[in-house]
Amino acid sequence: MVSNIVIVGINRKMSRSVAEMVAEQLGMHFLDTIELFEFDNIPRNLSTILKEQGEAYFRKKEKSLSGYVGEFENTVIHAESGSVLEESNVEKLKQNAVVVYLHAPISKTKAEIHSADYQDGHLKKFFDVSLEKVRNRANLWKIKADIVVETKSGSALKVSADAIRAIEAYFIK
Fold first, then answer.
1. How do strand 4-9 and strand 29-32 relate by DSSP bridges?
2. In contact, 95 and 87? CB cutoff 8 Å
3. Which of 55, 62, 100, 116 is 20–30 Å from 47 (CA)?
């Protein structure tokens, strides 16, 4: 049986909040894969990583991070939605984790894309937020995830409750 839960969503802020709440509710540890980018004990956020290392480094590291899932136990892991673009990433995630995808309707995702405030030029340059690419990632996650939780509306608290119910149902079947 798997000992971890991976939560991913196109909306990073929402999926991270949900992952934290699920971990708390289930009495599990929480890890955001971005935290694995830290070195020299200096926290790095996505913007800093891109400024210092660039997109190629980020994608290479993202690929290697998928393999770390097996190193953890009793952990809810928040992963990047781009990890679905490499088949081997998904396979590694699923070896020791149940993968939960938080799916938002494309209309909601489109509104978020158009209203996004890119304060950092590195992030804007890095992220191709075209609706076509977002739709492609969403469709891949819907196919590859073990559990898909629809997030049509509601707060992270409501979505986390829906995710917990879906996770419990997955293990009961």
1. unpaired
2. no
3. 100
CA distance 88 to 67: 9
Dist. CA 147–CA 163, nearest whole Å: 9
Q: Give all strands (DSSP E) within the chain, no chain letters.
A: 4-9, 29-32, 75-78, 97-103, 147-150
Is residue 157 within 8 Å of 21, Cβ to Cβ?
A: yes
Host domain of residue 16: 4-172
pTM across the whole model: 0.81
Contacts of residue 145, defined as CB under 8 A and 6 or more positions apart, other chains included, come to 8, 99, 100, 101
How confident is the model over 116-146, as pLDDT tens digits? 554 445 445 445 556 777 788 888 999 999 9
Write out the two tokens for 17: 């909040």
CA 123 to chain centre: 17
DSSP 8-state symbol, 43: -
Domain total for the chain? 1
Helix (H, G, I), strand (E, B) or coil at 127: coil
CATH number of the domain where residue 50 is located: 3.40.50.300
